[in-house]
C-alpha cells in the first residue's frame, strides 16, 4: 500500500511500515530509543513492535490510559524520566498508543531539550485516521481539551491495522465518527460509501481517511484557513466531551461519541444558517444515531455545555467560530451562530 506523503513526513501502512521503520533506525544512528506505552499497549501492542524493531529499545516509558491523564503533570513525569535515563537531543521517542498518548507523547518530544525526534504508531482507529496525523500535540487544561500544545510533525506515522483487533467495538466506533466527518467536510462519495459500510476499519478505508486529512493539513499546516474544516462537529462536541468528563453524575463519553453528537447539532446549525438541505440533515442524524447511542441532556447540562464553548480554540475576539456545511462534502469556516439556535439544535437532536 503506497505511502501518504506530506511536505515533512510520510504515513506508511502494513508491510511498508515495517520496512520503513527498520531502514530509518538503521540510518539515523539515534543515541537512545525510547518507547512510550500505556497499560493496554504495553500488553497488546509492544510485542508487535519488539518483533519488527531492528535495534534494541533502550527504555520503555509508561503512562496510565485515559483522557484524565492527558495533563502537564504526566508530561513532567516523562520529562524527568527522559532526563534521568540519559536522553539527549539525538534520542528518539516512539509513541505507541491511541490519541491521548500520541498527542501527549508528541508534546513531550517536541519540548524536551527543545525538541527530539518522535514517531507515531497509532493503535486505535481514532488515532490512525485523526489524532496521529497532522502534527497537533498537546495536553488538556483540567477538563478543557487540548488547551496547551504545539504543532510539530513526527518523523513518520506507521499504521498497522492488525492492532485494531485488540480494541472493543466502542473504541472502534469512536474512530468511525472521525472517518464519517472526513466525508462530510470534503468527499460526499466517501461519506455515502462509508455510512453504509459494515466493516469500516479496513486498510483501504483507513488509508482514504488519512489521505483526506493529510490533503487538508498539507495545504494549511498551521490552521490559518482550510484546516479549520477538520473541526466540524468539534465546537459543540469538545464542550460535550469536557462536560461529561468533569461531571460527577454523567458517564464519560469517548471522543468520537461526543463528536457524533456535535456533528448532528452542527448539522442542524448548517441547515438553519448555510442552506444544508433538510434531507441531508436527516441523513446525518439517522446515520450517527444508527451507530451511536442517543445521549441524554437535561436543560442544566445544555446551559453548562454552551458556557464551555467559550474556551474553544477556534474562538477569536470573543466570538465562537463554527465550521458548518453548505452541503455534504462542502464546509465553511469561521461562521458566527446566534445563541438562540443552540437550544433549538439540542431540541432537534432530542426529537
Automatic annotation (TrEMBL):
Record-listed E.C. numbers: 4.2.3.4
GO CC, alphabetical: cytoplasm
GO terms, molecular function: 3-dehydroquinate synthase activity; metal ion binding; nucleotide binding
Cofactor: NAD(+); Co(2+); Zn(2+)
UniProt GO BP: aromatic amino acid family biosynthetic process; chorismate biosynthetic process
SUPFAM superfamilies (UniProt xref): Dehydroquinate synthase-like
Positions of the 3-dehydroquinate synthase N-terminal domain: 62-173
This protein's record includes keyword Lyase: yes
Top-level taxon of the source organism: Bacteria
Record key words, sorted: Cobalt, Lyase, Metal-binding, NAD, Nucleotide-binding, Zinc
A family per Pfam: DHQ_synthase
3-dehydroquinate synthase C-terminal domain residues: 175-315
Record InterPro entries: Dehydroquinate_synthase, DHQ_synth_AroB, DHQ_synth_fam, DHQS/DOIS_N, DHQS_C
Known function: Catalyzes the conversion of 3-deoxy-D-arabino-heptulosonate 7-phosphate (DAHP) to dehydroquinate (DHQ).
Protein name, as recorded: 3-dehydroquinate synthase
Amino acid at each position: 500500500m503506497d505511502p501518504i506523503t506530506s511536505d515533512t513526513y510520510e504515513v506508511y501502512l502494513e508491510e511498508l511500515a515495517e520496512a520503513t521503520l527498520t531502514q530509518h533506525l538503521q540510518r539515523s544512528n539515534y543515541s537512545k530509543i525510547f518507547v512510550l506505552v500505556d497499560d493496554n499497549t504495553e500488553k497488546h501492542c509492544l510485542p508487535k513492535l519488539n518483533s519488527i524493531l531492528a535495534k534494541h529499545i533502550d527504555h520503555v516509558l509508561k503512562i496510565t490510559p485515559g483522557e484524565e491523564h492527558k495533563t502537564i503533570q504526566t508530561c513532567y513525569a516523562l520529562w524527568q524520566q527522559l532526563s534521568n535515563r540519559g536522553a539527549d537531543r539525538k534520542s528518539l521517542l516512539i509513541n505507541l498508543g491511541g490519541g491521548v498518548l500520541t498527542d501527549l507523547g508528541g508534546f513531550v518530544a517536541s519540548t524536551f531539550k527543545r525538541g527530539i525526534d518522535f514517531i507515531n504508531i497509532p493503535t486505535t482507529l481514532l488515532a490512525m485516521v485523526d489524532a496521529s496525523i497532522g502534527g497537533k500535540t498537546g495536553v488538556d487544561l483540567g477538563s478543557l481539551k487540548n488547551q496547551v500544545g504545539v504543532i510539530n510533525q513526527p518523523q513518520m506515522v506507521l499504521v498497522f491495522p492488525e492492532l485494531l483487533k485488540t480494541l472493543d467495538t466502542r473504541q472502534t466506533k469512536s474512530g468511525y465518527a472521525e472517518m464519517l466527518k472526513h466525508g462530510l467536510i470534503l468527499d460526499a462519495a466517501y461519506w455515502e460509501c462509508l455510512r453504509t459500510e459494515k466493516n469500516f476499519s479496513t486498510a483501504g478505508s483507513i488509508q482514504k481517511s488519512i489521505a483526506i486529512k493529510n490533503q487538508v493539513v498539507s495545504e494549511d499546516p498551521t490552521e490559518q484557513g482550510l484546516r479549520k474544516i477538520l473541526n466540524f462537529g468539534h465546537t459543540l462536541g469538545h464542550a460535550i466531551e469536557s462536560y461529561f468528563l468533569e461531571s460527577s453524575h454523567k458517564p464519560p463519553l469517548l471522543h468520537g461519541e461526543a463528536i457524533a453528537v456535535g456533528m448532528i447539532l452542527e448539522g442542524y446549525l448548517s441547515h438553519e444558517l448555510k442552506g444544508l438541505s433538510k434531507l441531508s440533515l436527516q441523513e446525518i442524524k439517522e446515520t450517527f444515531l444508527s451507530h451511536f447511542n442517543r445521549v441524554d441532556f437535561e436543560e442544566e447540562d445544555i446551559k453548562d455545555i454552551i458556557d464551555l464553548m467559550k474556551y474553544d480554540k477556534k474562538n477569536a475576539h470573543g466570538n465562537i467560530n463554527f465550521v458548518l456545511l453548505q452541503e455534504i462534502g462542502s464546509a465553511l469556516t469561521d461562521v458566527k451562530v446566534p445563541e438562540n439556535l443552540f437550544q433549538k439544535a439540542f431540541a432537534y437532536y432530542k426529537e
